[in-house]
Amino acid sequence: MFLLAEIVDVPETILIEGIVISVVGYVIVFVALVILYFIFFQISKVLNMQLKSKLRRQGKLSEVADEKDFSIPGEVAAAIGMALYISCQLHDEESNVLTIKKVSRTYSPWSSKIYGLRNLNR
Question: In the predicted model, is pLDDT for residue 19 greater than 60?
């Protein structure tokens, strides 16, 4: 490390501070990703518990079906996503074109020139 400071011609303290800052940055990003992973992992469990409690209050959930997992399999989610993608592609391209029609009444206070001139009384 000391050789690198001599080659680059940078003071040793600046090189060490740069390394510390980059390591701390990587650690912060990694910890944030791990925290987000656990949050997203727990969201599915919380939503599943809410669905079970709602069905239990309505009387639609029996004790046998209480252990059932209500999550959607990956194949079903992929099929739904593909169906939505295909249904959006079926429309013609002209549906996004805006048509501007000329207004028959052309006078507007915005286009009036008399309001833009100064009234000089001579």
Answer: yes
24 contact partners, CB below 8 Å, separation of at least 6: none
Q: Please say whether the beta carbons of 47 and 33 come within 8 A.
A: no
Alpha carbons within 13 angstroms on the beta-carbon side of residue 41 total 6
Q: Which of residues 26 and 97 earns the better pLDDT score? A: 26
Closest to 72 measured CA to CA, from 50, 53, 47? 47
Residue given tokens 């001579």 in the structure block: 122
Cβ-contact 8, 15 below 8 angstroms = yes
Q: Which three-class secondary structure string do you get for the chain?
A: CHHHHHHHCCCHHHHHHHHHHHHHHHHHHHHHHHHHHHHHHHHHHHHHHHHHHHHHHHCCCCCCHHHCCCCCCHHHHHHHHHHHHHHHHCCCHHHHCCCCCCCCCCCCHHHCCCCCCCCCCC
What pLDDT digit, counting tens, does each position of 101-118 carry? Answer: 766 666 666 666 666 666
